[in-house]
Prior knowledge:
Helix content is 55%, strand content 7%.
Amino acid sequence: MTSALNAQRVNPLLQESTLPYKAVPFDKITVADYKEAIEEGIKRQNQAIEAIVNQRSMPTFENTIVALERSGETLDNAVLTLSNIEHATGDEALMNLMAEVTPLLSEQATNVILNQPLFEKVKFVYDNRDKDTSLTPEDLRLITETYDNFANNGANLQGEDREKFRKLNAELSDLNLKFAQNVTNEMKNPEKTMWVTADQLDGLPESIRAAAREEARQALEAQGKPDDENLYLFTVYFPSYSPFIKYSENRDLREKIYRLYNSRNTSGEFDNTQILKDIANIRLEIAKLMGKKNFAEYQLQHTMAGSPEKVYEMLEDLRVNYTPAMQKEIAEVQDFARKQLGDDEFVLMPWDYTFWSDKHKNSLYSFNDEDMKPYFELNNTIDGVLGLATKLYGYKFKENKNLPGYHPDVKVFEVYGPEGKILGLLYADFFYRPGKAPGAWMTEYRVERKEDDGTKILPLISIVMNFSKPVGKEDVLLNPYEVETFLHEFGHALHGLSSEAKYASLSGTNVYHDFVELFSQFNENFLTQEKYLDGFAKHHKTGKKMPKELIDNFIKASQYGAGYACMRQLGFGYLDMAYHTIESPLRASQDIEEFEATGIEPVKIFEPVEACFVSPSFGHVFSGGYAAGYYGYKWSEELDADAFAAFKENGIFDKETARKFRHMMQQGGTKDPTELYIEFRGKAPSVDALLERDGIMRVSK
């Protein structure tokens, strides 16, 4: 590009999009555009804040709180676009840029919070909020949330403490990013792959073999080596690891890939063990600076739980009730394996559980996950998952092939409400790619909000999965777990798309951590409902509906392993709390493997395996915003089981119940979540529905 043309070019992140719905022009954005937009966004935010601080008139809701709320729009849009694409692509240039701009972003966020004249104006509006009778409940909520954000993030600190807080925040931001990028890079590490030969594939379904063969072909081609049809490659990415550990009859190889997967980031170039200690210690230091004894106490102030004691109370309640079921399940699976092997000395190990529990479940219910895959062809499943929102809320989805995505795999849908009005755009990115971050997630490129005249700024919502790509012209077939994951992330997406908040910071999924998973986990309930499956689960070749016998067996099997599954989740919750209830720093010599084993001891399923521990790759907690918040999955599970009980009482597609649930989604963070839930359900939630769903008998106290 010539200098003259370059001078004429306008950064697409710094001008209003000309695309329909002001969609992001992904195809026009260059790497250099991100940094320029972020620097300009910081500049514009600083100018807006300067105007707030220097205004002569008395601070009001509009000239202070709303002005501050809107001051970072340019910056937020640029950062959301960069961080989301970097996570979904693993592009090295974007990863490097993210590392470069993260300190700038951390410094900017801290500068805003520690701007004393700005805080004084915010505090003035907060202190006088009851005197302005024109304020709506949502306005008052924004004032409170804005003030609390300042107060809980150091605005009340004085002198050296303010500078210490600034320094700690900068260090923490940098460490969070390093942790996350190490996790992503370790997934790509050739040392975390397992090459096998054709004679080592016993038990693996043909679709998994084909995917591993293609993985090997691509890897050999990248290395400049000739293809070898006898070689297959398995990785620690979930679409590869999960079926291998589940179906492979080769116990030694199951153990090998288990150790590869569970030793990620524990040593070598991408070792996170020291980084996670530093993160935990800095969080503790921040908490003490804010007058709290540990980080969990500090972090849980704005949650439904409210305190570490309440979190442990919930975790302990579930531990007591689910432990007997888990112990019974493990004993039954081991006994089953011993009988199948003719070996009374066989001891079930972690790499055996998934394999033998699947076979045990199949023997009990004549059911196999693979039996369902032909009925979960991806395109039919897309229709079925999106169609759930049509049946419940009257939403319509129309694919728009003219709008660009950030990758050729991405599908873009226009989403319409029951009244026919556009609600927003949904970007769906389904397939695994080398470099892409593991797992599945929902995020947004723009948050819903409203202009002063009521004009709705449409949300741009994204869901990302890691399904196996089709090999050749083969259909993409999903297992029940993958369909459940799709439903889960789609629930988050509906939360963002349904929002009718006026202010972006109170919109969509901007709610308490232990409330946000309600809307995703709620959707998962439909996967065990015959009336729902009957609407889309068709054989990918014959077009026939899923047989009733298969559905019945799947539903019967849905409670199988509930004790194990719950204890596994509780393990993550206990581990998270262990790191964030420390009251003295972790030592440099601290053995993280030992710390983890101690932390999860109350809910231990198997004895620890040497050099295998989850902490160094625990992205949710050390880089993903769930610090002292992982318990929220189980907290929300109690909510989602209780909420779905209302649908079972009235009919799973009951329009009035769905209307109330949609109303709860539309509110975002504009109301207290407990108040919202009781408004929907008519009563406070209870754990009873969860125990009933899982077939767990309450342990008498």
